[in-house]
Specification:
This protein has 821 residues and is an alpha+beta fold. The chain has eleven helices and 44 strands. Strands 29, 30, 31, 32, 33 and 34 form a six-stranded antiparallel β-sheet that branches. The longest helix is centred in the middle third of the chain and has 19 residues.
Length: 821
């Protein structure tokens, strides 16, 4: 089977002659130009992951579960000979990173540990342990005596550390007042680069919606490791050079021999010395613009490669830059890169873009399509039953190591694995394996436990074409019963029938599609088959016999979901406005991710003139913790600000002081469970509807099964500040339960929405919104003896006027006497 489309990770040989990949559990190498792909493992039913080529070119390291647990394996780069296996404790392992002398390998595990192993003695040595879920990215010094890495501090900000192989000690070298990451030794051994952010704020956590508005940047820094070394950024001055008349020493015999034979002598790696005393004062900012850098890689001496995250539609990948320390210059290398790695000699680079995988020189600009690898030729012999057995064991290992509860909700994991194992023999199809996974993992009794994907047949699909409408059949024709309006300025909400110049209206007939007559005996969807996003000529008119008809060009949609959803939102908003006589706002939150964030920002702030709000989180698909939404819903009014012209200001902006209610139902879950829980905890208003789904143990970060399928093991669980597990398997119950009556729904009513409006109007009737009038303007010259007050919340009293007459001058206190000469 061809497996070039199933690549999970890659690396490059030291000179860039070949690339190494993990694909469907196999380790394969692919030539840059000549030759064929080479499968080094040929072990269907065994997972081999994360291959890495040694700098001397001899070995390829990877992790393999052939023994039943993952081990670190070393195989000759040509695939010949025996495999050297280094036993590891049961866990999942990641990212083997070779030392420059090809004698040691650093790697990390699922338990947040960073390790290294000397391949001669084979005993792993722990370097450090992180405090949270963090992927160590170790970087070796050129002399293989130090490991630089970053890890989180108790503040959640990360700091850069350096570990000594000789002393077995780690030393923190950044102060923790910035989020410092991606340390990289320069090839000269004189400097250590890293990137740090001081504006990352809540984005360092990332789980809260409050992190969404932040666009953090990182600056790049350099630490001069030795006290005696000068600054590479010292002031420069152009000076005239006087020729040196002294005779240059003759070249050594070895150098002469190398020159005569066209060879370049290989210098010994520099002996890296780190003077920790005063190191903080030897950290310098590089002349590199502050951007969102997500990785650093060292090139040749005094050169650094930087990967910059470039947000945009679909997240098109990273931009690669090269910084030349000698020239103090930053140049762009590549755009839209999804993976990037330099060869050990830094003369070639491996990268992935939308068009495939490439190896290209670093010395010259990359030409489009240059160095494309023949990954389509990668193949293996697949034994489905062997793969199914491996994935069965892998699935139980994932639950064993990732599930949040080490007691697995009281389930005997080993006994359950043994209980279901006989069913493997009856499996005849990959879909059967997913069914088995769903049944056996259901015993963990938890939400967010998903089984999906894998090597299952993908039936050929023919795209349809939809016009954004409902039809009814009348007079032997299709008639437009409802036409859905879109937002034709919004590409994601384009409505085909309401475009300028089309102007189809409800009640007209659809008479023909691309010249083909259409009657009630035809299937309208068949007539529009394979027309999505293509120009189609339709004939429409007011009469079934075609009189008065016209032809218009439309561009059908692949799906009408967005248009129908918009119609539901706008229908609800209008209904709330009608029922409340314009007093109440309506905001629907589809999830607690980017779409929910966008909906809240669009609809909530546009209705701040209302006296209350219905917040509808029914069908909420979850995402993150929507604290941003809660913060605005509960935001108190602090003050008003009078301006000379126009309306007074209400501060803080975003306050809507009136009553609020939240609609919930059984189709809201995950972040859609947590949002109403926070709404109630903050006493913002009542919850109305039905109990939510009840799934609040989060997921993410699991190994992919070898054939591309996946299972989850919920691994971060919610409990309250009072120390109670809540929501999971229970949901959030409403304060006012309202069933969605099907009969009322068919009649065009929404009982839950109507109840929310009723409750809020009753609240407004009981506690009407009081508008604070602008106070009388102060007159600071009303009377000389006017008494003033600074007591909070009280207006200044009117000046008292007496008929005793004002004294010409008050007697000064002793302390107020002033000598006048």
């Amino acid at each position: 089977e061809k497996i070039g489309t199933q690549i999970r990770g890659g690396g490059i040989s030291p000179t860039g002659a070949r690339a190494v990949f993990s694909a469907r559990g196999e380790v394969v190498t692919v030539p840059a130009e000549k030759g064929s792909p080479r499968n080094l493992t040929n072990t269907s039913g065994v997972a081999e992951r994360d291959p890495s080529w040694s700098p001397d070119g001899k070995w390829i390291a990877y992790f393999s579960d052939e023994s039943g647990e993952y081990e670190l394996c070393l195989r000759d780069q040509n695939g010949m000979g025996n495999v050297k296996k280094l036993k590891l404790a049961p866990s999942f392992y990641y990212a083997p990173t070779w030392s420059p002398d090809s004698k040691k390998i650093a790697f990390r595990d699922k338990r947040l540990n960073l390790w290294y192993v000397d391949i001669e003695n084979g005993t792993p040595i722990k370097v450090d342990t992180a405090r949270g879920d963090y992927g160590f990215t170790p970087n070796w010094s050129p002399d293989s005596r130090w490991i630089a890495y970053a890890k989180p501090l108790p503040s959640w900000y990360s700091a850069v550390f350096v570990y000594s192989i000789e002393t077995k000690q780690s030393t923190q070298i950044t102060d923790g007042l910035s989020d410092a990451r991606y340390p990289v030794f320069d090839k000269s051994g004189k400097h250590l680069y890293f990137a740090a952010s001081t504006d990352i704020g809540p984005t360092v956590f990332g789980f809260d919606m409050n992190s969404y508005p932040h666009r953090p940047t990182r600056s790049v820094y350099l630490a001069v490791l030795k006290k005696s070394d000068p600054s590479p950024l010292a002031p420069e001055s152009d000076e005239e050079k006087v020729p040196d008349e002294e005779k240059k020493p003759e070249a050594t015999a070895a150098a002469a021999f190398s020159a005569a034979n066209g060879a370049k002598p290989t210098p010994a790696p520099a002996n890296v010395t780190i003077d920790f005393d005063g190191l903080g004062q030897r950290i310098l900012a590089l002349p590199i613009p502050a951007r969102n850098y997500v990785e650093l890689q060292r090139g040749k001496a005094n050169s650094l490669y930087l990967l910059e995250s470039t947000p945009g539609p679909g997240n098109a990948g990273a931009m690669v830059h090269k910084f030349d320390l000698d020239k103090r210059k930053l140049d762009k290398v590549l755009d839209n890169v999804f993976s990037f790695e330099l060869a050990a000699n830094a003369e070639k680079m491996l990268f992935a873009q939308a068009g495939g995988w490439f190896i290209a020189p670093t010395a010259t600009p990359v030409k489009p399509g240059e160095g494309k690898l023949k990954i389509e030729e990668i193949e293996m012999l697949v034994d489905p039953r062997a793969e199914w057995t491996q994935m069965y064991r892998e699935t139980w290992r994932i639950e064993r190591d990732f599930f949040y509860d080490p007691n697995y909700h009281g389930l005997d994991l080993k006994a359950t694995e043994k209980k279901y194992e006989p069913y493997l023999q009856a499996i005849q199809h990959r879909a059967d394996l997913n069914y088995l996974f769903q049944e056996m993992l259901g015993e963990l009794s938890i939400g967010h436990l998903y089984v999906q994907g894998g090597d299952v047949p993908d039936a050929k699909r023919v795209p349809g074409g939809l016009l954004g409408c409902d039809y009814k059949i009348e007079n032997g024709r299709y008639r437009f019963a409802k036409i859905y309006n879109g937002e034709n300025w919004n590409p994601t909400l384009r409505a085909p029938l309401t475009q300028p110049g089309v102007n189809v209206v409800e009640g007209e007939y659809l008479l023909a599609v691309n010249g083909r007559n259409l009657t009630a005996n035809d299937n309208v969807y068949q007539a529009l088959e394979s027309t999505a996003n293509k120009q189609v000529v339709i004939r429409v008119g007011p009469n079934p016999d075609g009189t008065g008809s016209r032809e218009v060009t439309v561009v059908p949609l692949a799906t009408e979901n967005a248009l129908r959803n918009l119609a539901w939102i706008e229908g609800n908003r209008r209904k709330v406005s009608e029922l409340s006589n314009g007093k109440l706002a309506y905001v629907w939150l589809p999830n607690t991710a980017q779409e929910g964030y966008a909906n809240f920002n669009r609809y909530y702030f546009a209705q701040l003139d209302k006296e209350g709000a219905v917040i509808d989180e029914r069908f909420n698909g979850g995402g993150h913790a929507a604290d941003y939404i809660i913060d605005y819903l509960k935001k108190p009014l602090n003050s008003y600000w009078a301006v000379r012209d126009g309306d007074d200001w209400r501060q803080p902006f975003g306050t809507l002081p009136g009553p609020k209610a939240m609609l919930v139902n059984e189709y809201a879950g995950s972040g859609g469970d947590y949002l109403p829980w926070m709404f109630r905890r903050e006493k913002i208003g009542p919850l109305i509807g039905k109990r939510t789904w009840g799934g609040l143990v989060g997921i993410g970060g699991y190994p992919t099964l070898i054939d591309g399928g996946s299972v989850t093991a919920p691994h971060f669980a919610f409990y309250s500040p009072e120390g109670q597990w809540e929501i999971e398997n229970r949901g959030v119950a409403p304060d006012i339960e309202v069933e969605m009556d099907p009969k009322a729904w068919r009649a065009g009513r929404d009982p839950q929405l109507e109840k929310a409006v009723e409750v809020l109007l009753a609240s407004l009737a009981k506690n009407p919104i009081k508008k604070t009038p602008r106070p009388a303007y102060p007159n600071y010259h009303a009377a000389p003896n006017a008494k003033m007050t600074d007591k909070p919340g009280k207006a200044e009293p009117k000046a008292k006027i007496t008929d005793k007459g004002a004294k010409p001058e008050a007697k000064a206190k002793t302390s107020d006497k002033v000598a006048v000469k």
